UniProtKB/TrEMBL annotation:
Pfam families listed in its UniProt record: OSCP
GO molecular function, one term: proton-transporting ATP synthase activity, rotational mechanism
Gene name, Swiss-Prot/TrEMBL: atpH
Matches recorded under InterPro entries: ATP_synth_OSCP/delta_N_sf, ATPase_OSCP/dsu
Natural source organism: Campylobacter hyointestinalis
Protein name, per record: ATP synthase subunit delta
Amino acid sequence: MKEVIAKKYVRALISSLEASEFDKMNESLAILGVVSGFPKLKVILDSPDISSKNKSDFIFSLVENGSEKLKKFINLLGENKRLGLLSDIAKEFAYQKSVKDNEFTGLIFGNFEFSKAEKEQLEQSFSKKFGSKISFETIKNDYNGVKIELDSLGLEVSFSIDRLKAQMSEYILKAI
């Protein structure tokens, strides 16, 4: 439900922005999205003793060089008691910006390091496949294989070495 409400606010915000304002707004909302997850801020936002105006002013003060449109947007959220949706709004705005720019970022998980050339080859292959600019961040973890996630496009690809071994053993046993 929160995501649906956040989408409506993001659509309204996007319709009011000039093309040159997208990057700055995305940065500001990303900061607010992270900050809104702090427990102490949630206590402030949930407090009935603090007015909506004071809450909105406080939230706006957390962003350096915030635009007038951001201030009006935060005030609107405050008036409608929707400041708690800032993290959802930040995520949705970042997604809409990715769609607008046709640029997406994904994650590559594995228990080994990828070379720069391998990473670039994957980026080029996925970019060609989806007709978008795809970039990846690599995360080394305990996953025995390779797992690629592109959440924005609803894609997850994995290759598990353990699973391959199990399937090969099963195939060999069936062949015997």
